[in-house]
Amino acid sequence: MTKQQTLSILKPNAVRKSLIGMINLRLEQARLNIVAMKMLHLTREQAAGFYAEHEGKPFFENLLKFMTSGPVVVQVLEGEDAITRYREVMGATDPSKALAGTIRYDFADSVTENAAHGSDSPESAAREIAYFFTPNEIFPK
Ligand code: UDP
Fold this sequence. Notes:
Its main location: cytoplasm. Residues 3-140 form the Nucleoside diphosphate kinase-like domain. This protein has 7 helices and 4 strands. By secondary structure, the protein is α+β, with helices and mostly antiparallel strands. The chain has a single domain (3-40, 71-137), classed as Nucleoside diphosphate kinase-like domain (Alpha-Beta Plaits, 2-Layer Sandwich). It has a 4-stranded antiparallel beta sheet with strand order 2-3-1-4, sandwiched between helices. The two termini are 17 Å apart. The structure holds uridine-5'-diphosphate. The site of uridine-5'-diphosphate has 9 residues, from loops. Uridine-5'-diphosphate is lined by residues 54, 59, 63, 93, 111-112, 114, 117, 120.
């Protein structure tokens, strides 16, 4: 077991539906401690830079439109095996394939509007955390 940090985004549909508290309760109960957080309304440039690996894919434009449709909450989560654990708590990208009891199973509206983002590897986590936070905005336990 290794202590890790991962980047979480509560996407615009989760914020619109007042699910910040509900989702964060689940995260804290899963021992994913919130060690940094901010609310932002992403610009198109910020969203495109964040999702640069998906540029050119058929869903890219729709994803940008959604991610800029309202404010999001970006957070750094910290805990043992936080990257994998958060992916498990979040569930599969496509909510129809997500396990019952996961965040996406319970709160996603579609594959695109799937309520939450979580880094998929240590390399992505490092890049994504630095994309939104400076070191002095993060408060490790
Ligand atoms: N996405 C989409 N259509 C797809 C695949 C992905 O709209 O067919 C969106 C969805 O919001 C997803 C994001 O693009 O969360 C990034 O996709 P990725 O495959 O990296 O999934 P994730 O790591 O978020 O589970």
